[in-house]
């Protein structure tokens, strides 16, 4: 098999066979295919696209490029949840305890944040003592004992994807649907769960800005998951403003705890109950999504989900006292307020701008080597549709570096648009794809 011939075939619109795709993925992962040839192929794929069969074969080849986790020691139908990334998206910390409290085993591997979207692992590490790296026996034992464990993703999961994505990032070939879908799903399929619920964000603060593109991606990923015999459901959700009020690691954990106490923002609560309900249904603990929603709601109102979060924190070495004492979280020393300069209504909060402002306050990374400030971030006192008066506090910026906080304040201030009339609110949950 010759890589030059394969590049020419795809350049001219040809269909790559399963054997050719496996040859490409294996060769590039092992280093026998150089970057310049893989770059040429990625550009050919970007323009000529891949059909469903090619996309599925690429996903499978990347899935099997490294370890495929065996979760058979865990009883029941394991359900995973993945978000395509959003600003203020702390739903895993709410959804996982809700689903686990309803009998769904959650054995989840999550990533760190890079850029303006936060990572679940970073958020969990703001809990004093919390361990995101535990051995396989403890991981699976905890799921069997309390129904829930979330750890950092191992580097041996889909290594081909890691290498190919790094090349896509510097060759302007990120935005191809087949490459995006196979990147996400290769990792999810290798992670071992029996069912997958995908939260596909669309809007200003999401990778997929248009609803139409988000639907295409969602449908493609559901087809890939189902073809691999994993029950897969996608939920298309709005990301035209930050989710909830807190953006930043410890701030988001606190908001997740508040949500499980029944005191969280309406959008976080609504989305978490919906996602948890779908996970409960996917795990065969409910006969419908609607019944799953009601079960999740009951787990929230009874306090069972909060109890499950406490057990989860304690099981992974974290201090469970954080549930009631937020002063145990990392503390900031610098604060800046964004003050409204006219009366009216909040008509827009640019999610991406808030995400970048949070990153620049110290809460996020520009490179994987950057150290983050777990106390840093932004708290939004107003959301889209809220009536405001001149002098109201729109948001507060937190951190431990005066210059970073000042830069973040300037950026976050530009994210708010105040208008004379109330805007039409976007629907939070736009579509469910089964």
TrEMBL record:
Using the record's annotation, list all stretches that form the Pyrimidine nucleoside phosphorylase C-terminal domain.
345-419
Q: What Enzyme Commission number(s) appear in the record?
A: 2.4.2.2
Q: Name one GO cellular component term.
A: cytosol
Among InterPro entries, the record links this protein to: Glycosyl_Trfase_fam3, Glycosyl_Trfase_fam3_N_dom, Glycosyl_Trfase_fam3_N_dom_sf, Nuc_phospho_transferase, PYNP-like_C_sf, PYNP_C, Pyrmidine_PPas_bac/euk, Pyrmidine_PPase_CS
Its biological purpose: Catalyzes phosphorolysis of the pyrimidine nucleosides uridine, thymidine and 2'-deoxyuridine with the formation of the corresponding pyrimidine base and ribose-1-phosphate.
Q: Which NCBIfam families has this protein been placed in?
A: PRK05820.1, PRK06078.1, Y_phosphoryl
Q: Which family does it belong to?
A: Belongs to the thymidine/pyrimidine-nucleoside phosphorylase family.
UniProt name for this protein: Pyrimidine-nucleoside phosphorylase
Q: Which organism is it from?
A: Aminipila terrae
């Amino acid at each position: 098999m010759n890589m030059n011939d394969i590049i020419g075939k795809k350049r001219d619109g040809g269909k790559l066979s399963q054997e050719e795709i496996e040859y490409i993925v294996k060769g590039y992962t092992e280093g026998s295919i150089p970057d310049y040839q893989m770059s040429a192929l990625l550009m050919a794929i970007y323009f000529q696209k891949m059909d469903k069969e090619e996309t599925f074969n690429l996903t499978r080849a990347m899935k099997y490029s490294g370890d495929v986790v065996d979760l058979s020691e865990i009883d029941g139908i394991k359900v995973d949840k993945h978000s395509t990334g959003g600003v203020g998206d702390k739903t895993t910390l709410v959804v996982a305890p809700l689903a686990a409290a309803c009998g769904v085993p959650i054995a989840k591997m999550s990533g760190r944040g890079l850029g303006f979207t936060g990572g679940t692992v970073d958020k969990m590490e703001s809990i004093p003592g919390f361990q995101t790296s535990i051995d396989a026996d403890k991981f699976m034992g905890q799921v069997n004992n309390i129904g829930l464990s979330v750890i950092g993703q191992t580097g041996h999961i889909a290594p081909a994807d890691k290498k190919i994505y790094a090349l896509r990032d510097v060759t302007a070939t990120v935005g191809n649907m087949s490459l995006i879908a196979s990147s996400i799903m290769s990792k999810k399929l290798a992670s071992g769960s029996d069912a997958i619920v995908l939260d596909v964000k669309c809007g200003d603060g999401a990778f997929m800005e248009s609803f139409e593109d988000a639907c295409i991606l969602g449908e493609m990923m559901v087809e890939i998951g189902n073809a691999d015999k994993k029950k897969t459901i996608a939920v298309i959700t709005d990301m035209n403003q930050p989710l909830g009020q807190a953006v930043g690691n410890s701030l988001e954990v606190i908001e997740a705890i508040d949500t499980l106490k029944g005191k969280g923002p309406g959008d976080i609560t609504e989305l978490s109950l919906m996602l948890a309900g779908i996970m409960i249904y996917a795990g065969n603990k409910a006969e419908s999504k609607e019944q799953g929603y009601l079960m999740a709601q009951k787990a929230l109102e009874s306090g069972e989900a909060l109890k499950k979060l406490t057990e989860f924190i304690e099981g992974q070495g974290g201090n469970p006292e954080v549930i009631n004492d937020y002063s145990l979280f990392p503390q900031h020393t610098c604060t800046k307020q964004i003050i409204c300069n006219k009366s009216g209504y909040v008509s827009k909060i640019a999610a991406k701008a808030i995400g970048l402002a949070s990153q620049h306050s110290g809460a996020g990374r520009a490179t994987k080597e950057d150290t983050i400030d777990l106390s840093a971030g932004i708290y939004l006192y107003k959301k889209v549709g809220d009536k405001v008066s001149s002098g109201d506090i729109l948001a507060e910026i937190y951190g431990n570096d005066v210059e970073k906080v000042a830069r973040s304040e300037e950026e976050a201030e530009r994210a708010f648009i105040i208008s004379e009339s109330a805007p039409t609110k976007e629907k939070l949950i736009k579509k469910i794809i089964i």
